[in-house]
Design goal:
eight-stranded antiparallel sheet, three-stranded antiparallel sheet, globular, alpha+beta
Length: about 240
């Protein structure tokens, strides 16, 4: 009689759609059906953390209804499930920024609706931005990575931002973390974030930019003020 141990059973991703960027693709979710349109989404295999992002109706005042900056993670792969079920079309824009990637600075645009049955994997080092997000919820089951020698990585702010209007060939080239973080390290990082929030520190998500050899971190208020001043200066020039 052969005994099978659960820890010895390999659960591979079920990829359902790939893109022109290696590392940007859709995978199938595991879920339970509770009604015709209702689902209980189960965790992805070997995932130990998650985040839920609610984009309120005041999220964006722009016609595109999305962010004004791309985000690039160096220490995590995003695994995003889009939970709007109102039939809207969302758009995602992506640029590969990974040093040594065969698809470096390739840009891809995806158009999709909310779907609890699948998740979009955005591997670390791929810049991403989304449109038409107001009143929409995303479930992210990220995969966390660490490194001992990555000069681009900031463990306190694992995001690098790029203005929306930047041409793809002018995006930064970044080094990503190499090693999958053990569960204890992921839990330690989440605990640190909770402690900081309870102390009243870092409640607003910052923006972080790379300008040459310099890195600039701005609060949302500082960033909006800077963009407002930039818009007024352009109006004056016209």
């Amino acid at each position: 009689m052969v005994r099978i141990k659960l820890r010895d059973v390999l659960e591979e991703e079920a990829v359902c759609e790939r893109t022109a960027i290696d590392g940007l693709y859709w995978i199938k979710n595991s879920y339970l059906i509770t009604s015709e349109k209702s689902r209980i989404i189960l965790p992805q295999a070997d995932h130990s953390t998650f985040t839920i992002v609610y984009h309120g109706e005041d999220f964006s005042s722009s016609p595109h209804g999305g962010y004004e900056v791309y985000g690039i993670h160096l220490g995590q792969d995003d695994v995003l499930t889009f939970l709007s079920m109102d039939g809207r079309e969302m758009r995602g824009h992506f640029v590969d920024c990974r040093a040594g990637s065969p698809t470096l600075h390739t840009d891809v645009e995806l158009t999709f609706e909310g779907d609890p049955h699948r998740a979009l994997v955005i591997e670390r080092g791929i810049a991403h931005i989304f449109d038409n997000l107001a009143n929409m919820v995303t479930l992210n089951q990220p995969r966390i990575y660490f490194d001992t020698k990555n000069p681009d990585f900031d463990p306190y702010i694992d995001v690098m931002n790029v203005p929306r209007s930047t041409p793809p060939d002018e995006f930064p080239v970044v080094q990503v973390n190499r090693y999958r973080a053990p569960r204890w390290l992921v839990n330690l990082g989440m605990k640190y974030q909770r402690i900081q929030l309870r102390k009243g520190m870092g409640a607003a998500h910052p923006f972080r930019f790379k300008v040459g050899a310099y890195r600039i971190t701005l609060t949302p208020r500082e960033y909006k003020g800077l963009m407002s001043a930039y818009s007024r200066s352009n109006e004056c020039e016209d």
